[in-house]
Amino acid sequence: MKSRRLGRSSIAVSDICMGTMTFGSMADEAEAFKVLDQSLDAGINFFDTAENYPVPPDPKWAGLTEEIFGRWMKTKNRDSMVVATKVSGPSHGWIKSAQRFGMTSLDRHNITRAVEASLTRLQTDYIDLYQTHWPDHGTPYDEVMIALDDLITAGKVRILGCSNETSWGLMKSLSASERQGVARYETIQNNFSMNNRRFEDELAQVCRQENVSLIPYSPLGGGVLSGKYNGGANPKGARFSGYLELGGRQAAMARRFINKKSLESTERFMAIAAESGMSPVTLATAWSKQHDFVASTIVGVTSTEQLPDILVAADLTLSDDVMKAVDAVTSDIMYPMG
Predict the structure, then answer these.
(1) pLDDT by residue (tens digit) across 197-215?
(2) What percent of the chain lies above the pLDDT cut of 90?
(3) For this structure, is 243 an active site residue?
(4) Are 34 and 240 in contact (CB under 8 A)?
(5) Between 3.30.700.20, 3.40.50.970, 3.30.420.40, 3.20.20.100, what CATH number should domain 3-189 receive?
(6) Which of 53, 185, 217, 243 is catalytic?
(7) What is the value of pTM for the model shown?
(8) How far apart, in whole angstroms, are the C-alpha atoms of residue 74 and residue 230?
(9) In the predicted model, is pLDDT for residue 240 greater than 90?
(10) Cα 94 to Cα 330: distance, rounded to the nearest angstrom
């Protein structure tokens, strides 16, 4: 498996990262351990989690994913892997964190409490990549970046990253870091897939010019690009099937991923995959990796049965014809997810 550097840092990671957000909810500990073992054996050395996992966020199990991953990591060589986790953003906006009774923000108090709790759950004395899970545009970026830089000085964190950030927010943070002479964000973790290419509109150029790496999540469009929701299907046990039943914010998210345009584009992507002799999961994963601003693509599974089609993409480079065919679908069906 190929490796790439994260931003301007010295850290190189496998170009596929294993996400863990369903460990403890949709996948129990035994299955999570199997997934992690097979991922490591396949050459994946980069793993991503968060203090707010598993999903859907719920105070009754918040932090359980880190605990499960920590117990697994204790059976391995810590120095053989790169571990990323996240601190919750503010809970008075679009999402309420399941941590700290929903009183989260990106001030020094919350950042300090979050990292200490994550280190305990992960059973490690350092985190390789520490990310802000979503932005706090109401707190001055100077304060945020100084507080995060202190974690590096203390040896608790190696490098920093952000997630779900805007072009404005990323540039503001980079400017604050430069102005204050402190560590900067080396990565950004945003949604990016064949069904959601908005990152290319502006953020891709920011990443190229500022040497910040995208580590995209949801390359399968929340599982939609596998085709399992096509034809009106609502598969039992699937993430968005459950979200639609929950209602509220979760249902709204599901409807953003599953809609007429996204299912139409998925059908065409499935045809491209079939003509190329690969599964739609392999196509979506390989396509995500094949961008100059991407360092590592974050995948997620709930069982080992879902791993083979993902791992096929590890050594696959899509042909120019396949990439052009994908672009043609994008031109015909623009912004399926809005």
Answers:
(1) 999 999 999 999 999 999 9
(2) 91
(3) no
(4) no
(5) 3.20.20.100
(6) 53
(7) 0.96
(8) 41
(9) no
(10) 28
